[in-house]
Amino acid sequence: MIGLSPLEQGYCIVVLIASYALRGSTGFGGFAAMPLLALVIPMKVLVPVWTLLTISSSATLFGKDRRHVSLSLILRILPSCTLGILLGLYLFKTLDAAWLTRGLGALVSCYGLYALWQTRSGESPKPPRAVATAASFLAGAVGTMFGTMASLFFAVYMDAIRVTKEQFRGTLAALMMTLAVVRGVGYYAVGEFGRESLLLFAAALPFMLIGIFLGDRIHTGMSEATFRRVVCVILILSGLPLMLK
Q1: Angle, nearest 10°, between helix axes 132-146 and 43-62?
Q2: Is residue 207 situated within a structural domain?
Q3: What is the pLDDT of residue 13?
Q4: Chain centroid to CA 73: how far?
Q5: Which positions of the chain have pLDDT values less than 50?
């Protein structure tokens, strides 16, 4: 991986394989790698790379649930989400890497604290339907600024309108792939896909695929609640050093 020491390269490989193994085995955990990788890779380089990895991983996992994708739901989400993407592109282009890194650190740690607090009971509270449009807007803006976390807001949107479990899983995969493609076009339009980003993506892609392959064959002994708490703690801890960079 370009410009990284052997120790940093090994760290990135472990993070990529572990996070995508989590996603491959549970459907959750891929986005946790973003703040961990941002500790050694500049955000301006990492965000476009993460977009390409999101497209690749979403396409890999999409086939299983494609029958349950709700096209009408995607069409309802896209207008407000597109406005969020435009705002995210503007902020990504104008803010320097240090502010983006600190912002991601704060967002990740705050979410980790909130999600950890929610695990105190067996069921998360249902958000009101009024948050749906705001959530889709934030999915576009936050996903474009930081290259990650959009799935959280999409999840809030679909929870607010009460989709079925099958629609939730399949439509979320389709949404993440669609959003990544749209913002990838945006990054290309504003000149953010440089040679370094493309080479870094090529280097990271095999380890992402290895992680998903392993995840398909791994069964974790942790309960769902324990797993979520572990991921939340990792997010909280990984966000703190980002805020200090």
Answers
A1: 120
A2: yes
A3: 93
A4: 20
A5: none
Residue 59 belongs to a domain: yes
- Amino acid at site 14: V
Counted domains in the chain: 1
Q: How is residue 182 written in tokens?
A: 């749209």
Cα torsion for 189, 185, 145, 9, to the nearest 10°? -100
If you search the block for the tokens 């090994």, which residue do you land on? 10
> How much is the pTM?
0.66
* pLDDT value of residue 121: 60
Give the DSSP letter of residue 127: P
Residue 165 vs residues 41, 106, 151, 175: alpha-carbon distances, Å:
36, 30, 15, 15
The pLDDT assigned to 111 comes to: 74
**127: alpha, beta or left? (left if phi > 0; alpha if psi -120 to 50):** beta
